[in-house]
Amino acid sequence: MDWQKPFILQIRCISNEPIVERIAIALSLILYSNRGLIEKVISEQGGIQEEGFTLDIATQKDIEKQLNIKIGPISGSETMPASATETRVPWDQPQPPTVLIIHDDYETAADWMTNPGNKAFVWLLMIVHSAFVAHCVHKECESMPDLARRSREFCEAVLL
Q: What is the largest distance, in Å, between two alpha-carbon atoms of the chain?
């Protein structure tokens, strides 16, 4: 990102699924081409505190298999097609990548043939935007009460 302070955004596909690759390409294009809108929100939240951000994208089934855990529904997320991790590692320590988990039902939820008018990708983009901004300004998402609204506005600006 060619911001006032140079910034590297890295998106990695952890799963070998075509849906993960399509999401990674879409996110790369949207985030890079709208970097000015993102930088504005970051500036309003106190300015950039990082030199980079890594987003790993994986399917729920791959995460469960690799970590030998079962990812149950997150509170209120029974209908959410994706979620992102927050490690809460103190900001003065190296930050692990944020993981975007593509839930098992994402493709069905995002299919406009069977689910017209769905907002699956909008939700996914909103959580990535929120995680990205929070990482850049060294704040937890919950500590920025207007971040959800700003993420929605970002989606409206870039997807409409």
A: 47
**pTM > 0.85: yes or no:** yes
Instruction: Look at residue 2 in the predicted model and tell me its pLDDT.
Output: 80
- Tokens read off for 154: 């970002």
C-alpha 110, offset from chain centre: 16
Q: How far apart are CA 150 and CA 41, in angstroms?
A: 8
User: To the nearest whole number, what is the mean pLDDT of the chain?
Assistant: 91
What are the distances in angstroms from CA 87 to CA 76, 99, 131? 20, 10, 11
Tokens 């939700």, located at residue: 123
Query: 61, 54, 42: which is closest to 99 by C-alpha?
Result: 54
Where are any strands of DSSP class E within 31-106? 52-59, 82-84, 98-102
Domain 8-159: CATH class, spelled out: alpha beta
